[in-house]
Amino acid sequence: MSKIAFIAPDKQLFLQGKRVIQELGLQGEVEIYLARLSRAVKLANKLESSCDVIVCRGGTARLITDSVIGIPLVEIPITGQDLAQAFYKSKQVTNLENPKVAMLAFQNMKNDVEILADILGINLSIYLLDSVEDIPTYIEQLSSGETDIVIGGMKTTTLSLRKGFKAISIESGNSAVRTALLEAKKISLGRKIEKERSQTVKALIDYSIQGIISINRNKKVEVFNHAAEHLLELKRQEVLGKQIDAVMPFLPIKNYFGGEEHLGIIKKIKNKSLIFNIAPIKVEKDIIGAMITFQDITSIQEMEAKIRGEVLSRKFETRYTFSDILGHSKEICEAKRIGQTVSSVDATVLIFGESGTGKELFAQSIHAESLRKNGPFVAVNCAAIPPNLLESELFGYVEGAFTGATRKGKQGLFEMAHRGTIFLDEISEMDTYGQSRLLRVLQEKQVMRLGDNKYIPVDVRVIAATNKNLLKVVEKGKFREDLLYRLKVLTINIPPLRKRKIDIRYLAQHFLVYYTNLYQKKNIEITEKAYSQLTTYKWKGNVRELMHFIERLVVISKNNVVSDQDMKEQLNENAFETNYIGEEAETTNHLQSEKEQILLALTETHSNISQAAKLLGIDRSTLYRKLRNYEIEIKKAYK
User: At what angle do helices 594-604 and 609-616 cross, to 10 degrees?
Assistant: First the structure.
């Protein structure tokens, strides 16, 4: 459909318009019609929804404008040249030098016609028309003695000729038609740009997840989007055009209809907690309305949780590779060789090693060199999560699975590790029910969320680790034998530090350089005899203990050179701290047993595991393990 409608009230203008349209090359943009007066008004109303602008002339243009049409109208002007041409013709038709001319015209045709008539010697009488119905009345009033010729539009000339008067119509020149068409083209282009912007804004409003309401300066609702309908449970047609105070009495808009923004207004509406923001709409300095946006607080919280979950999932990455596992001993080199070998296959791996030997370091390195390296690496310390929570953490749960479950449930760690690796550290501390569920996941490659009735397929490689002899744990009935053999497909034994003493000095030097730079200390040197002290120490905490020992040595060292005596003193102090809680205390010092210390710490901290572990000077995972060993039950009330 053409965007410009040219409505010609007579055939002469129709043909003239057609020629000018072709000259300007606007055939594809302009549709030309022949209609005048009331028929032209009906046509214009019909074209309102399909075109951008109408071009018309004279009384027909006046009628279309008065009909309050909703699109712009460009009027073909009556120029001085056109009037001069009409006056010249009037002299020719009447053969009079100063003819008496009666001109019937609307106000928009009058212009400066009186001045032009004086210049050309025309005896002019102007009859201004308010409507087309006035034309017959004025013609009846004309007398042949006072009128030589009548000038006007098509209807005026037709009726005048019937009454016996000489008459000529005013015609627009090509220049006027051309000017009107070019102006219409500019308006059409402007309206196209305006429509595109309007549609963009409309799409943003309609598809926004926020409720959006716009009101004018009279506080009547002009915009009410789909989200607003949903959140307020109101139909758009029931709201548009209504006073905002009547539609939303719970929001005292009169208090906010000033020049300032009002953010974070919380209202509870129909069991929903909504947060409103109100901002004025200003044009220059005038406030012409206000914009109200609002959201469901619950949905904001859910979105935040989702984003947080996605961010966390992107952090399930490895930091270490086999190059970060330091040492030159044949024992550690063999362990690394085996680790690199098993990286290339996709079978389950069980890593044996004492605490502090670097089991997770090996697990991350295996993942980093495997075909799953671009997938997530999810590490779980089975000893750090209480048994009653371990199942929901590993396998997830659905909405309403238990009291306190979040809405829409929660994805389990196995699901988060899909197409990646899950590392189950301290697997020996998993309770028997969790072991049975883990066995099914390993066999069936699918998980069922807590409280659900369907399985979710998962593609996960499992790497487990333990610091215990699992065969002895199986003999005690605390670990499933079938699970052990399901995990024990590929195994890696990480040697303790005391069995690779050749690496102690190398590791100590590495940690010395690292912590010296980290804490910006002066270069510290360790004597040969001091290094000998390090190699004779048992290092029950293995590499981790050595690393933290060197860190402390760098921080508290008084001298730049650490002698063998200095090293001996520091090692004695380290041994005291390491064994503070590990053995039965000496009766000569009247110290409580380890179990009694734990019970006392739990009492003082009201069974807060984190605080109790801090008070005892151990990790939470270590405390959980000791609680199981001593069969100490923690009773906490969950809200």
Answer: 130
Query: Does 592 lie in the same domain as 554?
Result: no
Return phi, psi of residue 53, to 5°: -155, 150
For 310-349, the pLDDT digits (tens) are 544 545 778 889 999 999 999 999 999 999 999 999 999 9
Find the CATH number of the domain harbouring 367: 3.40.50.300
Q: Are strands 377-381 and 349-352 parallel, antiparallel or unpaired?
A: unpaired
- With beta carbons less than 8 A apart as the criterion, state whether 294 and 341 touch: no
The total number of structural domains that make up the chain: 6
| Each residue's pLDDT tens digit, 101-130 | 888 877 656 555 777 777 778 888 888 887
CA 622, CA 597: separation in Å to the nearest integer?
A: 14
Place of tokens 């980093």: 368
Give me the pLDDT at residue 401, please. Answer: 57
> Using CA atoms, how far apart are residues 304 and 285, in angstroms rounded to an integer?
37
Range of the domain at 51: 4-77+176-189
CB atoms within 10 A of CB 12: 13
- In this structure, are 363 and 485 located in the same domain? yes
CATH (domain of 501): 1.10.8.60
d(CA 485, CA 571): 40
The verdict on residue 311 lying in a domain is: no
CB 413 within 8 Å of CB 393: yes
